[in-house]
Amino acid sequence: MEFNGFILYGIDQRLLDEQQNEKIYGLIEYNKLWYENEWNKQYIFLGESDISWYAYDLTAHKFCELDNPSGTEMEKFNNLDHMVEKLLIDALE
């Protein structure tokens, strides 16, 4: 899902039943990209914007918003719903 510069990663292209007219990058494909930097491997990246990554911290067991590109934690969330809600609200502003 992509709107107003915010992206919430979806299903990977290879998992789709139908071919799309455009290239789709999904959760697994994006995480492979981000894992080129060793420190990123502590996260599962779930979405992004121009200035943020939305991720799950595997070490601290929490959802968070990280500064893109520094990786500094900007905000933490109690659960996935709160993080997605923040992403959607920011996308609509």
Q: Can you tell me about this structure?
A:
- 23% of the residues lie in helices and 30% in strands.
- The chain has one domain (2-92).
- It has helices at residues 27-34, 80-92, and strands spanning 2-3, 6-8, 43-48, 52-57, 62-67, 73-77.
- The chain has a 6-stranded antiparallel β-sheet.
- It starts with a strand and ends with a helix.
- The mean pLDDT is 86.
- The chain contains 2 helices and 6 strands.
- It is α+β, with helices and mostly antiparallel strands and 93 residues long.
SSE map:
Layout: E1 2-3, E2 6-8, H1 27-34, E3 43-48, E4 52-57, E5 62-67, E6 73-77, H2 80-92
Antiparallel strand pairs: 1-2, 2-3, 3-4, 4-5, 5-6
